[in-house]
């Protein structure tokens, strides 16, 4: 009987250590739930920025090159807000055809690639550092979301 108890205790200790190691490895590979929320918020920020840029591109195509003019500010229908802070994204008209959209990102996307860079070369366009960052757009080019 004593041998069974020693075996049971040893097995329980090994099983517990394996579970703890698996949980630790999961956090190491995937990050904590808080980090995952930050990554998801950054992905939403990029999607919102791309949606605004795509709307400008579509207006450019519909209006025609001769008639289209970038506005000095976003109109109410175009304004989108940061998913965490509720603040609108920043827009700046740079020229008749170029503009930038800015957001404050929680994470550096180089530490959690948005997608496989090899299979999707457009994904590199959407990489960003943590903090305030601006993407520049040309209204004549379609801003494809790369992930």
What is the element string, with H for helices and E for strands?
A: HHEEE
Biggest sheet details: 3 strands, antiparallel
What's the number of extended β-strand segments? Answer: 3
**What's the tally of helices?**
2
Q: What integer is the average pLDDT?
A: 83
Strand content: 5-15%
Produce the secondary structure layout.
Blueprint: H1 2-30, H2 33-63, E1 90-93, E2 98-105, E3 131-138
Antiparallel strand pairs: 1-2, 2-3
Structure description:
This protein starts with a helix and ends in a 9-residue tail after the last strand. It has 147 residues and is α+β, with helices and mostly antiparallel strands. It is built from 2 helices and 3 strands, in the order H-H-E-E-E. The protein has a 3-stranded antiparallel sheet with strand order 1-2-3, covered by helices on one side. The protein is rod-shaped and about 90 Å long. It has helices spanning 2-30, 33-63, and strands at residues 90-93, 98-105, 131-138. The mean pLDDT is 83.
């Amino acid at each position: 009987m004593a041998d069974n108890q020693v075996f049971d205790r040893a097995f329980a200790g090994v099983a517990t250590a394996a579970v703890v190691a698996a949980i630790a490895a999961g956090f190491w590979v995937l990050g904590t739930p808080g980090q995952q929320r930050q990554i998801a918020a950054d992905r939403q920020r990029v999607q919102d920025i791309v949606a605004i840029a795509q709307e400008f591109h579509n207006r450019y195509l519909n209006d025609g090159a001769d008639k289209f003019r970038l506005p000095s500010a976003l109109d109410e229908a175009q304004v989108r807000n940061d998913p965490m802070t509720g603040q609108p994204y920043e827009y700046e008209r740079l020229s008749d055809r170029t503009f930038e959209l800015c957001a404050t990102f929680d994470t550096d996307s180089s530490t959690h690639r948005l997608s496989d860079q090899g299979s999707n070369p457009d994904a590199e366009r959407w990489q960003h550092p943590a903090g305030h960052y601006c993407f520049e757009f040309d209204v004549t080019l379609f801003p494809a979301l790369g992930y």
